[in-house]
Specification:
Layout: E1 3-7, E2 12-16, E3 32-37, H1 41-56, E4 60-61, E5 70-75, H2 80-96, E6 101-106, H3 107-111, H4 113-117, E7 122-126, H5 134-140, E8 172-174, E9 200-205, H6 216-220, E10 224-225, H7 228-240, E11 245-250, H8 266-276, E12 281-284, H9 294-302, E13 309-311, H10 319-325, H11 331-344, E14 349-356, H12 363-375, E15 380-385, H13 403-426, E16 432-441, E17 445-450, E18 455-459, E19 467-476, E20 479-486
Parallel strand pairs: 3-4, 3-5, 5-6, 6-7, 7-8, 9-11, 11-12, 13-14, 14-15, 18-20
Antiparallel strand pairs: 1-2, 9-10, 16-17, 16-19, 17-18, 19-20
Length: about 475
């Protein structure tokens, strides 16, 4: 049986040309769509850009998947659970709306297109390599006629191959070499205020790191940056539309600008946003510890327009495990960075991603992680249990940690993180915090988000996207309760 293989550093995922699947009943025309996103901020930004492109081609956005003729599932594959969530969503949509056409894209579609194509109801599988062509594919209903070798192919984009099955035989697949991909599907710019008060602006995609556990570089490709002029233009557009806080995000955000010519550095872009826009608050999403330079820390501390919030992935507090993970820092380097951030911004939120159960993680390794978490000034954690990803070096390592052991370690860290978060929240009792109001109102309180990432419930109903100063009175249900003293 002939196969086409997409190159990965440690393995090859075969994609057969004879994909067979039950043929769904396809509509000949498409007028409505729904996009459902899974995973990280970058995926959310990709999905928002897809929505904008589909609307630009005359399609109408449906309020729910059951009302759409085409449902686009923008998937994640960072863990086995993420793959499972995508498969469950496909089955649910097929069951609830059997007449719709399902297009699966994103990281899961790039990693395992044949697996996705085998699911009932899937009409198209489009990898990240061709995600920028989804609006064209859907609006023209061109299964069987899309060519990755011609048409309006972007300059400097060279797909490795195109896999296609006829509509009568099964889904159409459009997946190419992600390492040849130069497109950056930028986040959309909104023309008017919506319920979202804090839009995400993706300015970077892909990753040049090769952490041994991570599949993301192999499904998103090399690091690519949005040119700084486009960044400034989009921020200005968002400000003109009325947005007051913008979150800039990326897969490896701190590497922004390294691929541009002339080469630029991330702090330079932050300075340009502050100097060339009137954005009231800029929030930085996750940035690797080696990219929290003294310059960036100083800039974040000095500017009243940058949210006092640092998310700094840690993964492990064990030097041995960090080396097995192929991480580029040691525990003492990480601790030094966090202590500098805390000294510069005493009231800042400081969070991290921490992984437990990595292959070979002993009780001593885990205790080093637990002790470092206890020591450092974290205000929240995202704790993950290791999930073997096909094709990554870690998947074939010996000494895989038994799931019950890994789950217990996860519980220990989550409980520790909850205690640290509560202590941080309680430190603001009786004080005042400035926050931006969000959309949610429960009949008594309006949700708001403080500069330092603390969730507030402020008494009364307040319009979204407004600055309020709240007096903090209590902590309940994991959130601060307060009353507005000024607007």
């Amino acid at each position: 049986m002939p196969v086409t293989c997409f190159w990965f550093p440690s393995s090859c995922f075969p994609v057969r040309r004879d994909v067979k699947a039950p043929a769904p009943a396809y509509n000949s025309t498409v007028s409505s769509f729904y996009v459902e996103n899974f995973g990280c901020r970058a995926t959310q930004a990709d999905g928002a850009a897809l929505e904008q492109q589909l609307r630009a081609r005359g399609l109408q956005s449906a309020a729910e998947p059951g009302a759409a003729q085409v449902v686009v599932l923008n998937t994640c594959t960072v863990t086995a659970a993420a793959d499972q969530d995508a498969r469950a969503a496909i089955r649910r949509i097929q069951r609830e709306n059997p007449g719709c056409q399902i297009l699966v894209t994103g990281c899961y579609a790039q990693r395992a297109p044949e697996e996705v194509a085998s699911l009932p109801g899937v009409r198209w599988v489009v990898g990240n390599s061709h995600k920028h062509r989804i609006a064209e594919i859907v609006s023209r209903d061109v299964a069987g006629n899309v060519s990755s070798e011609g048409g309006d192919r972007p300059a400097n984009f060279f797909p490795l191959s195109r896999l296609q099955a006829s509509s009568s035989a099964g889904p159409s697949l459009l997946v190419g070499d992600i390492f040849a991909h130069t497109e950056l599907l930028a986040a959309p710019v909104f023309d008017a205020l919506s319920e979202r008060t804090r839009p995400n602006l993706k300015v970077q995609d892909g990753c040049n790191n090769r952490c041994s556990f991570c599949v993301i570089p192999y499904v998103r490709g090399r690091s690519r940056s949005l040119p700084w002029g486009e960044v400034i233009g989009q921020v200005n557009h968002l400000v003109a539309a009325g947005y007051r806080e913008v979150v800039i995000s990326g897969i490896n955000l701190g590497r922004w600008g390294r691929d541009l010519r002339p080469q630029l550095r991330f702090p330079a872009m932050v300075r340009e946003i502050l100097q060339q826009t009137e954005l009231e608050r800029l929030r930085l999403s996750s940035i690797e510890p080696m990219d929290w330079s003294d310059e960036l820390i100083g800039l974040a501390a000095e500017s009243t327009r940058i949210a006092k919030h640092a998310h700094v992935p840690m993964q492990s507090g064990s030097d041995r495990i960090l080396r097995r993970m192929h991480r580029k820092y040691r525990p003492w380097h990480y601790a030094q960075r966090l202590q500098k951030i805390r000294q510069a911004m005493p009231a800042a939120a400081i969070g991290a991603d921490v992984m437990v159960g990595f292959p070979g993680e002993s009780e001593a390794d885990f205790e080093q992680t637990r002790a470092l978490v206890e020591e450092l000034p974290f205000t929240y954690l995202h704790v993950f249990t290791y999930s073997a990803r096909p094709g990554t070096p870690a998947a074939s390592l010996p000494e895989q940690v038994p799931p019950p052991v890994a789950h217990e370690r996860n519980r220990v860290l989550r409980e520790l993180a909850a205690r640290k978060k509560l202590a941080f929240q309680r430190s603001f009792l009786g004080k005042e915090l400035q926050a931006i109001t969000l959309s949610r109102y429960d009949g008594e309180h309006t949700e708001a988000l403080a500069d330092n990432y603390l969730k507030l419930q402020v008494a009364g109903r307040h319009a979204p996207n407004q600055w309020v100063t709240a007096h903090i009175e209590n902590v309940s249900g994991g959130e601060l309760l307060g009353s507005v003293v000024s607007v």
